[in-house]
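Q: What residues go here?
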């Protein structure tokens, strides 16, 4: 399964975009999936999201007052041992100023 999320960033300084994500079974219990949830970086590499925060874009220039919209591609590949059911993926984006 593949899809993408649009993120709009407003920043008056150089910035970087970070992402973290995890799957939750819809009964509310955190789930350790055998499958993999991946995100594609600005450098066109796929990174497995394993709960740790990953830097997607770095050294980005300041934006205009309109901001800049970034399309972030995701893909999920289920594993054989994943329990049947419905899952939700929680994604957290963080914008950090470059130092």
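A:
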């Amino acid at each position: 399964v593949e899809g993408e999320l649009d993120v709009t960033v407003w920043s008056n300084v150089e910035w970087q975009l970070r992402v973290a994500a995890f799957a939750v079974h819809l009964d509310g219990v955190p789930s350790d999936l055998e499958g993999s949830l991946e995100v594609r970086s600005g450098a066109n590499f796929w990174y497995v999201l394993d709960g740790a925060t990953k830097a997607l874009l770095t050294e980005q220039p300041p934006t205009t007052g309109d901001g800049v919209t970034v399309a972030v591609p995701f893909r999920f590949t289920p594993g054989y041992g994943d329990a049947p059911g419905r899952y939700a993926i929680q994604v957290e984006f963080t914008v950090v100023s470059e130092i």
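A: Context that may help when evaluating the design: DSSP finds no helices and seven strands in the chain. The mean pLDDT is 84.
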